[in-house]
Amino acid sequence: MNLALDEMPKKIDYKVFKQHGLGGMLQTLYNSSPYLAINALYPKTFKPWEFSVKNYWKNETRDTAEEAIKWLVEEKLNLDKNEIWKVRRKHFLHYNLGQILKIFYQNSHILALTYVYDF
């Protein structure tokens, strides 16, 4: 597919594996998880929430949500605690974290940031 590494989470899903004749392999070896397959090739390069996984956050804990929020703020947005005010809802959505807000934080990015960064 000739994708840059940072494009993979947005562009690789189950349909892509199936279109390339790899749906059975994905199902058999990786429990139909594009993340697990890509992680086998590029260990510790991506987080599971970067890939569109239906209902991923329904099976996770608030601790994992907190880890994802810190990843968003500190790694993806490169902000420190004094710059938290720059984080917007659109950032959560862009990095596939919108469901965190719905499931854990009453649809509020402010509540999520307040909970994680205690401000």
Structure description:
This protein has helices at residues 8-11, 14-19, 23-30, 34-41, 62-76, 89-94, 98-104, 109-117. The relative contact order is 0.11. The model has no long low-confidence stretch (mean pLDDT 93). It is mostly helical and 119 residues long.
SS element count, helices:
8
Alpha-beta content class: mainly alpha
What fraction, in percent, of the residue positions are helical? 40-55%
Tell me the overall shape: elongated
Radius of gyration: 16 Å
Oligomer: single chain
Can you tell me the number of structural domains? 2
β-sheet strand percentage: under 5%
Please count the beta strands (DSSP E, at least 2 residues each).
0
How far apart, in Å, are the first and last alpha carbons? 43 Å
Please tell me the overall pLDDT: 93
- The residue ranges in which pLDDT falls below 50 over 5 or more consecutive positions are none
Could you give a short account of the major beta sheet?
none
SSE string: HHHHHHHH
Secondary-structure blueprint of this entry?
Layout: H1 8-11, H2 14-19, H3 23-30, H4 34-41, H5 62-76, H6 89-94, H7 98-104, H8 109-117
Features:
119 residues; mainly alpha; elongated
Task: Describe, in short, the structure shown.
With 119 residues, the protein is mostly helical.
